[in-house]
Amino acid sequence: MLHRIKKAVMTLALIAAVACAGQANAETLINGAGATFPYPLYSKWFTEYAKVDKGVKFNYQSIGSGGGIKQITAQTVDFGASDKFLSDDELKAAPGKLIHIPTVMGAVVVTYNVPGVGTGLKLNSEDLANIYLGKITMWNDPKIADDNKGVHLPAKPIIVVHRSDGSGTTSIFTDYLTGVNGEWAQKVGKGAAVKWPVGLGGKGNEGVAGQVKTTPYSIGYVELAYAFENKLPYASLKNKAGVFVEPSIKSTSAAAAAAVKHMPADYRISLVNQPGRDAYPVVGFTWLLVYENQKDAAKGKHLVEFLNWAMTKGQKMAAPMLYAPLPDSVVKMVQKTIKTIK
To answer: What is the maximum alpha-carbon separation in the chain?
Structure first.
């Protein structure tokens, strides 16, 4: 009888030990959703960070900035992601204080699929706006040809592609067009979703890149990494200084250099059409949106540790994936902001 009791006690102890070990090994799942713009880099970050902190797993849904803002406002995710900063009204609509954490910068590129025309197409801001307004409709229009001497532009209609979902990439692109073209500013304006005068819609940066890749004579706008991944050419755009600039890490960083001198404490700043000969004109920050007061202490702790990692080790992974790392002055600011998360 005593032997049986001892055996039962040992079995219960073993079950308890296994249960405790299971709890110790259980991963904390942190859910996020939003921007497709930084998705290639975030995927890399979450994979690499899982090796650093084995107690946490990130689940990120690349659904567009509009979706990310909706979900973090509804608190159905632990963090949102957006390439569009929230307006005062959007911040007021949130049930707590939302903080913008800039992670990296990226270039929005104008990509195209014109048989016979490889890399090196040049577009000025006026012509680009008129293509998206539906006023320049042919590839061999004299206005485009003027900037592309020696390039054989076909007598084919331009097929315009834009985003169909609420998108931070759209917000950056339309912010740029609004600043350079009065008619665009008056008729269409800027935002994550606008009433497009012409064109086909694609969901996410992935959708637009896919549409351009499979549609001859098309033009679209995507984050630089998506054009590169899909082996799509991208145009050099005329900047504020009147220079045609190719999108790159260097020209993205040049655009940020002017703006960061006036960086506001909440990081809500536009980087489009910055001065400087080397500045690419269509550049934006991408932000993670997190609540200052975290409801779940364990998740909050893991999230803060991840954000600190993203500001140091994570920044080193940006350039190889065609994103520009944050300037050092901004990193120092963000590290102070992360400390305010409770």
So the answer is: 100
For 72, 96, 100, 198, 305, the CA distances from 341, given in Å and listed in that order, are 16, 12, 11, 44, 11
Q: Quick check: 293 pLDDT over 50?
A: yes
Q: Considering the entire predicted model, what is its pTM?
A: 0.85
Confidence class for position 26, pLDDT limits 50, 70, 90: low
**Is-contact 86 268, C-beta < 8 A?**
yes
212-232 in b/e burial notation, b at 16+ Cβ within 10 A?
bbeeebbbbbbbbbbbbbbeb
| Separation between Cα atoms, residue 336 and residue 153, nearest integer Å | 52
Tokens 């204080």 found at: 97
Q: In what order do the strands lie in the sheet with 244-245?
A: 122-123, 236-238, 244-245
Residue 271 and residue 226: Cα distance in Å, rounded? 20
Alpha helices in 74-167 (DSSP H): 88-93, 125-133, 142-146
3-state secondary structure 170-197: HHHHHHHHHHHCHHHHHHCCCCCCCCCC
Phi, psi of 241, rounded to the nearest 5 degrees: -85, 0
Both structure tokens of 107: 């270039």
Q: Scanning the structure block, which residue is given the tokens 């902001």?
A: 337
